[in-house]
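Appendix B. One record, verbatim.
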Amino acid sequence: MGGPGDPPEGTPEGGPAGGEDEYRSVVFDESFVRAARLQEYSAEERMTDHAPAVRRRPHLHRGLTRQALILVLLIAVAFGTAVYMGVRHPYSTPQARRTVEPLRTTVIPLAPTGRVPGASDAESLYAHSPAAQFEIGAEGIPLPASRSTAHFSDSQVVTALTTAKDYIVRSSLYPEVLIGRQVHPARALLDADQLDQFDQSIRHPAADGRHTATGWLVRLDPSRVQLADDRVRVQGDLQATEADAGALEVTADHTFVYALRPTGAAASAPASLFTVRRELTFRLTRDDLRTHQVQLVTSHVQAGPLACAEDSAAYLRPLLAGQTARTGAPAGTDPYETDSPAALCGTLATRAQPTV
């Protein structure tokens, strides 16, 4: 007879003795049972008709819940956004305010050696003067052939030349500016950072090399002179070069010849010529090119016939037909003040005057 744990036919040949089969070492603990995919119904559940002996258990979700996954995803997105914004934020870095160089001016009166020649016909004066072959007005300020530089395109160079020419025309040829009644046409073309210096030069002109109104404009004293002919004769040239990677420099050298009469004089009154040579240096940054404005850096002016003793800071006060220069030098020059410019005065060559 076999034991209670043995099969009715006895222990199979070669099988383990004492009823210990090969699965006896496997321990089915409670966690193993709960994890089983198939679960046996209870006796009460099996009493139901057609109930299967076992049922399939739902999967146990051992991973993260959906809410936890969403939270992790949001944290990852926020972290990535913070890193991106730190590397490439949408706000431009504030740039240091650029420094605009103040204008430096020199105005040199040219005194005649004798009486100023005159004639009732302005055309006759021009025809018998070195200005006979000069162009009229803006035609005497031609634009040179331009080409690109290392950091500026050809169109940018043309813009620089055109803007400088516009300033020269407005400050040297506009009748309303010449006679000293308006300054806005030229002022509107100045870089915004030079406007304070310009305004102070107009309101409180001084022969200090910084606030000389006649360094900014050709200003004739309206209490003394008027235009005998508004067709001003002009000759000169413009040149553009690259000052540095951020700016272009335009140099201008032009001679202007004006026909003048005393203020209020009749058209038959004798007229005389007044000559102004302006050597100007402009600086134009990329912002200036965009806004069509200039920085006037230097202004060297020679003008005559003028009396050396006259103050030319506010207005140019030309000597007219038949007048002579008074003796004496400009007052107010202090050689002990290093920031006070020397008072200069030249002589107007006879050949620069009309031969009438």
